[in-house]
């Protein structure tokens, strides 16, 4: 914590033996100690107090609830880890995990690659660069529900634009909600439409911190632009890429609004749960079926899944650029 | 009240219609109803405030006028009418359950949708016994179905009915004409005295207009058949009175399932799920010809189909004559500090006067029989539907309605099994596997 360093620095400027003798005795000494040692903690405490109330407490309380058969306005019995064992054997839960991972992969991989290419294009000298840069951010400031509503209409079975376009090529109308892969594609496009520009802007900002002389030196050595991109840009963007991958992982694993809107506001995610994500599963168990304990256990498993997959992704991404 | 967020739009539409037609019936010379306690509230020593909590969009429970009338007549018992949210299932119900569990926060009177009545019946500890305040004398005012649902598992009366959905069959006169079928509502009602005749009519319709669905989808037909079949099977649906799941054993459930399967496999459905954009668009563009219509659905149709389709829709009787979808109840939580006064207010709101006021204000069809017989309701016509006599049609559909027992997990099982029906209709589940899956999902949902 930077705070510790700062406090330590201030105290350390005084020679230690002098400090010991110069300290006035009694309450003043206590006050001065408080001023030096405790005050910084006091000043940063609002964040940590709020974090404790809205972060740590719910986390611990959820853990506590997850160890019970906890019915809303009903019985509560301590059952230990039974919710977890039941959950790990629940097809529906694993179905939602598979859906979440599936949508995450087909949404995030193209999204980040596209964002990287987009950023690289925007980093060039272009006419109306500012307008272009701002316009890639526009999807981000639209409401996610509005995006989902519009896309859901585009993907409509009987009167949707996408099916009309496909119909021009003789393709039979697709009921996008009906099969897993069609619904995943539809949801992935919603996610990508909204988040590609955001990631592109982050990459762009990082690209602009790369010193120009590196490119000049590379150009003098005869490196092609492609080579420069993979040899200079990507390795130097690595911390930024790691950041976006972790943020996308968290976002992807908690995906909720898009599939809910795509499924007409229901938590079931299609008639056979084709696109029910883990977040939807949790809400369905907790707030439709009123099984709080079971939902809490699912929330904890989701937390662990995010942690694990963020670590895996971190390990994977850390490797990029190394071989080149 | 129907448990749906689109209530706002439908109520707005219903309200316009209802206000227009009941304007003539608005008079203050109406004698006070026997059951209603307008002036009869015993005066408590000090002023008490009764909080009334409801849900729903638009006019929601439409109690503004009724509350005004009560408050004017009872200066010592003032009602505060709070509509908490337009969302029942995902907002109102979880919130109310949390308040009941916490022992504070719930109003002195709370409203509850049909879908949660099984859950509430199984939790008698949270509600006041209304018989203590003499409300058991109201039995004759309600259809048996409505009354019995307000009696909890201990046999105590804890809730009285507000509105009721009833069931009719809405149909497109323009499509019927194209298909060479009669278009007048009496002739159309004669086409389908029972569900078999309805199926046969559908086949004729499909032969003439193969691209148009005869019915929108699986849900309404399933529920209408089920409501009638449940009566033949001891008033049980998914649970018996011991809360044992009987989804696989109840012949009524199987009969309703089989009927939908036949209808769907004959290609008579438009394969639509209610409350989706596709469904709305099909309603506007004539994508299907008939749809099961509870009273509040008239507002959904007129609001969705718009002025361009005025006169294209009409209302006939439902096959088999009875049915219901939706409706609500009022109850007094035992955490209320003034249960006696709350019960008096509840008695007034669910009495003839309260029901009629809500019908005039929001179009909510009364479950109270004296209110149904009042000219304000009995003579009600719906202009959008070619002046169909909506009052008598819906009153008839609930008069013979058999009482149904709702299990504690009725809503969850209902949602889970209907999902399979929709899936089979739309093709994500094979009909050959559908019944097995239907039962499996029901068992899982029952936990």
TrEMBL record, chain A:
<keyword id="KW-1003">Cell membrane</keyword>
<dbReference type="GO" id="GO:0005886">
    <property type="term" value="C:plasma membrane"/>
</dbReference>
<feature type="transmembrane region" description="Helical">
    <location>
        <begin position="294"/>
        <end position="317"/>
    </location>
</feature>
<feature type="transmembrane region" description="Helical">
    <location>
        <begin position="38"/>
        <end position="65"/>
    </location>
</feature>
<feature type="transmembrane region" description="Helical">
    <location>
        <begin position="236"/>
        <end position="257"/>
    </location>
</feature>
<protein>
    <submittedName>
        <fullName>Sugar ABC transporter permease</fullName>
    </submittedName>
</protein>
<feature type="transmembrane region" description="Helical">
    <location>
        <begin position="97"/>
        <end position="118"/>
    </location>
</feature>
<keyword id="KW-1133">Transmembrane helix</keyword>
<comment type="similarity">
    <text>Belongs to the binding-protein-dependent transport system permease family.</text>
</comment>
<dbReference type="InterPro" id="IPR051393">
    <property type="entry name" value="ABC_transporter_permease"/>
</dbReference>
<keyword id="KW-0812">Transmembrane</keyword>
<dbReference type="InterPro" id="IPR000515">
    <property type="entry name" value="MetI-like"/>
</dbReference>
<dbReference type="GO" id="GO:0055085">
    <property type="term" value="P:transmembrane transport"/>
</dbReference>
<feature type="domain" description="ABC transmembrane type-1">
    <location>
        <begin position="97"/>
        <end position="313"/>
    </location>
</feature>
<dbReference type="InterPro" id="IPR035906">
    <property type="entry name" value="MetI-like_sf"/>
</dbReference>
<feature type="transmembrane region" description="Helical">
    <location>
        <begin position="130"/>
        <end position="154"/>
    </location>
</feature>
<feature type="transmembrane region" description="Helical">
    <location>
        <begin position="174"/>
        <end position="193"/>
    </location>
</feature>
<keyword id="KW-0813">Transport</keyword>
<dbReference type="Pfam" id="PF00528">
    <property type="entry name" value="BPD_transp_1"/>
</dbReference>
<keyword id="KW-0472">Membrane</keyword>
């Amino acid at each position: 914590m930077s705070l510790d360093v700062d406090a330590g620095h201030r105290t350390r400027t005084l020679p230690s033996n002098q400090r010991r003798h110069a300290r006035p005795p009694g309450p003043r000494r206590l006050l001065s100690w408080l001023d030096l040692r405790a005050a910084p903690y006091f000043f940063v405490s609002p964040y940590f107090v709020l974090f404790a109330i809205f972060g740590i407490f719910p986390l611990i309380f959820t853990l506590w609830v997850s160890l019970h058969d906890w019915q809303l306005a009903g019985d509560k019995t301590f059952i230990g880890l039974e919710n977890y064992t039941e959950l790990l054997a629940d097809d529906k839960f694993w179905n939602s995990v598979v859906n979440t991972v599936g949508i995450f992969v087909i949404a995030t991989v193209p999204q980040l690659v596209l964002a990287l290419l987009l950023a690289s294009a925007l980093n060039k000298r272009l006419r109306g660069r500012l307008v272009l840069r701002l316009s890639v951010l526009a999807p981000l400031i639209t409401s996610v529900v509005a995006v989902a509503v519009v896309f859901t209409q585009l993907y409509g079975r009987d009167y949707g634009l996408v099916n009309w376009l496909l119909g021009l090529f003789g393709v039979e109308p697709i009921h996008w909600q009906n099969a897993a892969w069609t619904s995943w594609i539809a949801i992935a496009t919603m996610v990508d439409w909204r988040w590609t520009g955001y990631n592109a802007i982050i990459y762009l900002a990082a690209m602009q911190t790369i010193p120009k002389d590196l490119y000049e030196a590379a150009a003098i050595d005869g490196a092609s632009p492609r080579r420069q991109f993979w040899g200079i840009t990507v390795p130097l963007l690595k911390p930024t890429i790691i950041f976006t991958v972790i943020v996308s992982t968290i976002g992807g694993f908690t995906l909720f609004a898009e599939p809910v809107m795509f499924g007409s506001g229901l938590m079931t995610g299609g008639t056979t749960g084709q696109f029910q994500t883990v977040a939807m599963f949790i809400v369905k168990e907790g707030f439709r079926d009123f099984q709080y304990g079971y939902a809490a256990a699912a929330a904890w498993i989701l937390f662990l899944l995010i942690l694990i997959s963020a670590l895996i992704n971190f390990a994977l991404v850390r490797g990029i650029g190394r071989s080149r | 009240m129907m448990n749906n967020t689109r209530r706002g739009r439908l109520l707005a539409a219903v309200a316009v219609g209802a206000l227009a037609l009941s304007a003539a019936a608005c008079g203050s010379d109406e004698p006070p109803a026997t059951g209603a306690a307008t002036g009869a509230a015993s005066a408590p020593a000090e002023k008490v405030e009764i909080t009334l909590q409801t849900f729903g969009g638009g006019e929601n429970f439409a109690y503004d006028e009724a509350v005004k009338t009560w408050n004017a007549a009872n200066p010592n018992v003032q009602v505060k009418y709070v509509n908490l949210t337009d969302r029942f299932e995902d907002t109102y119900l979880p919130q109310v359950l949390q308040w009941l569990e916490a022992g504070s926060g719930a109003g002195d009177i709370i409203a509850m949708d049909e879908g949660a009545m099984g859950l509430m019946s199984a939790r008698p500890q949270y509600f006041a016994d209304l018989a203590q305040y003499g409300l058991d004398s109201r039995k004759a005012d309600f259809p048996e179905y409505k009354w019995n649902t307000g009696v909890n598992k201990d046999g105590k009366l804890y809730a009285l009915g507000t509105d009721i959905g009833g069931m009719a069959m809405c149909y497109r006169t323009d499509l019927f004409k194209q298909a060479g079928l009669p278009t007048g509502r009496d002739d159309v009602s004669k086409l389908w005295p029972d569900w078999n005749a309805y199926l046969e009519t559908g086949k004729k319709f499909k032969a003439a207009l193969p691209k148009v669905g005869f019915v929108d989808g699986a849900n309404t037909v399933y529920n209408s058949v089920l409501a009638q079949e449940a009566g033949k099977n001891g008033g049980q649906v998914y649970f018996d009175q011991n809360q044992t799941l009987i989804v696989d054993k109840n012949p009524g459930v199987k009969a309703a399932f089989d009927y939908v399967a036949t209808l769907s496999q004959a290609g008579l459905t438009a394969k639509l799920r209610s409350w989706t954009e596709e469904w709305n668009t099909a309603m506007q563009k004539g994508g299907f010809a008939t749809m099961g219509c509870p009273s509040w659905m008239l507002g959904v149709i007129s609001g969705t189909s718009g002025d361009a389709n005025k006169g294209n829709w009409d209302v006939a009787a439902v096959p088999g004559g009875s049915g219901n979808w939706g409706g609500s109840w009022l109850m007094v939580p035992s955490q209320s500090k003034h249960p006696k006064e709350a019960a008096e207010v509840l008695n007034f709101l669910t009495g003839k006067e309260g029901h009629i006021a809500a019908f005039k204000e929001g179009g909510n069809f009364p479950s109270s029989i004296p209110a149904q017989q009042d000219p304000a309701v009995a003579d009600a016509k719906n202009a959008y539907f070619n002046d169909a006599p909506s009052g008598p049609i819906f009153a008839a559909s609930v008069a013979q309605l058999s009482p149904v027992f709702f299990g504690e997990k009725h809503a969850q099982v209902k949602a889970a099994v209907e999902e399979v029906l929709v899936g089979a209709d739309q093709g994500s589940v094979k009909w050959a596997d559908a019944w097995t899956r239907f039962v499996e999902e029901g068992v899982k949902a029952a936990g």
